[in-house]
Structures are given as structure tokens and as C-alpha cells.
Design a protein that fits this description.
Layout lengths: L5 H20 L3 H18 L5 H7 L8 H11 L11 H7 L22 E5 L4 E8 L2 E17 L6 E12 L6 E9 L2 H7 L3 H11 L1
């Protein structure tokens, strides 16, 4: 049944908005057809279809001419998105054993079909936690997060957004020494997930922190 990941769904969402924008701004059929062909090429390069029915599910994208049609299309295709497997509280605590008073987010509040990675901020300690799956294994990083109160480019989703600096401390080669690695990421992790349509950028980000 599933044939899309959350990041692929976000990618298709962007392409659908591109189609809508084209119909809104142009009446030239050649322009519309050119954008439709480009979107088809982009989708084929992003998603591997195992059967023709899966391709047919996305076909209505090429006729989206109103916001209502866009919303209906996105609602219809969302059932084919494999959700991020919700971790248990025990699994999360095991990821961060040094944090004896780990404050967990309300997991029931997340839309797992629009979540490529789980993240939350403990405002009491200014620690930001990032949890993801790699090769089926649950992994996590945590660091101190400083709001910058400025708009910049997020290292995870590559979009312009309100960003802050995430700094992760790692033990150095000499005893008692630490090195810090970090970069600017979105303050709003839900918005970051919605903007994330290329998981390679996220993977590179977390690997650079380790």
C-alpha cells in the first residue's frame, strides 16, 4: 500500500504547488505543458514506482488549478505515505542515558506521515534532541540550541527560516577535552520537516555532528 516516505510526500507537495502556481500565473498552454513535463520528470527521479497503480495515484497532480483541488489531492495521496515509526518512551530514554530527567515531547501530537525526523527542545536546559532512523536503527543526537532571532538557511531543509545554532559536544582525543560541532537549523522542527524534501541533506547534517 505504501510507496512514499514522508520526505517524498513533501517533495510531491512542492511539485503540486508548482503546478497550481503555473495555472494561476499563466494561460499559455505551452508553458503549462512544459511545467507538467518537468514535474513528471522530477517525480520519476524521486520515487520508484513498483506498479502502474502507484503512478496513477499521482496523476491528478497535473490538473490542480485551485487550492481546494490541491488540498483534496494531498489528502488523497497521504494514505500512501509510510509513517515514521513512532518510538516508545523507553526507546527515547535509552538513546539519551546521560539525561536522567529527560523531558519527552507528547508523541501523540506528531503527524508521523509528515515526519522524517523527530526533534524537540527542552526549554529548561536549552537542549535540542534529534531522533532519526538509519538502516532500521533508531539513532539520536543532542546539543545546546541558541536562538539567533534571525532568518537564515537551515542546514537540514535548505530553506530560508528562523534559525538557531545547534552545538554538539564530543569527547576529544585527549582526556578531559571536548570538540564542538554545529550549524544553523530551523527553530521550528515541524516546519523543517514540512520543508524537507531531500533526506540526503539531513543525513549529511547528522553525520557531520558525529
Amino acid at each position: 500500500m505504501y510507496f512514499m516516505t514522508p520526505e517524498q510526500y513533501q517533495f510531491v507537495k512542492k511539485q503540486a504547488k508548482k503546478i497550481l502556481n503555473t495555472y494561476t500565473t499563466s494561460k499559455d498552454q505551452k508553458v503549462i505543458q512544459a511545467i507538467q513535463a518537468l514535474v513528471q520528470e522530477e517525480i520519476d527521479g524521486k520515487i520508484t514506482f513498483l506498479e502502474i497503480q502507484q503512478q496513477l495515484v499521482l496523476q491528478p497532480i497535473f490538473d490542480i488549478q485551485s487550492k481546494e483541488q490541491l488540498e483534496l489531492f494531498l489528502k488523497e495521496i497521504k494514505q500512501y505515505v509510510e509513517p515514521f515509526k513512532q518510538p516508545t518512551e523507553a526507546e527515547l530514554k535509552k538513546l539519551f542515558p546521560k539525561d536522567k530527567k529527560l523531558k519527552l515531547p507528547k508523541l501523540e501530537m506528531f503527524d508521523w506521515q509528515e515526519t522524517s525526523y523527530l526533534s524537540w527542545l527542552d526549554s529548561g536546559t536549552n537542549r535540542k534532541y534529534i531522533v532519526y532512523r538509519e538502516d532500521g536503527n533508531l539513532k539520536g543526537v543532542r546539543g545546546t540550541f541558541s536562538n539567533s532571532a534571525k532568518v537564515g538557511i537551515c542546514s537540514v531543509c535548505n530553506q530560508h527560516a528562523k534559525v538557531g545554532m545547534l552545538l554538539v559536544a564530543k569527547k576529544g582525543t585527549d582526556m578531559g577535552t571536548y570538540t564542538k560541532k554545529g550549524n544553523y537549523i530551523c527553530e521550528d522542527s515541524a516546519a523543517c520537516n514540512e520543508a524537507l524534501s531531500d533526506l540526503d541533506k539531513f543525513t549529511n547534517f547528522v553525520h557531520n555532528l558525529n
